[in-house]
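User: Hey, my collaborator sent me this sequence without any context and asked if I could get a structure. I don't really work with proteins. Can you help?
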Amino acid sequence: MTFEERLTAAHQELASKGVWHANYNPPLCRLLRRLGCPVKPPHYQGWLSNTLWFGVSAGLIWGLFMWFFSWQPMGMDPLFSLRQTALFAGLFGIFMASWLWLRRKQLKLIPWERLESHGEEFK
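Assistant: No problem. I've predicted the 3D structure and written it out in structure-token form, which is a compact way to encode the shape of the chain:
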């Protein structure tokens, strides 16, 4: 089974369980797939992958906004800003990865590797 077929089966399973489209196919995942990177939906990623994925992406955005709109105008030390950004990114990444892990268990999702044998169930 190709990645695209497995991705379609995953999207069908998530949709059939009532997960919102924006939650199982976020814009960043769609962008990366268009660029040729085979990215699984967040519900099928591992805990560490989701921690890094959400932590780094949210940390970059939040840190830059805070630096340009709050910390720099207030004259904050750059090391303080980096420490606060790292703390926020780490906590946010852990929270999101844990939330997705819990949702995967609650929804009883089929593991990514076994989706090929269950793809027809969701059509």
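In plain terms: The mean pLDDT is 92. You can pass these tokens on to your collaborator as they are.
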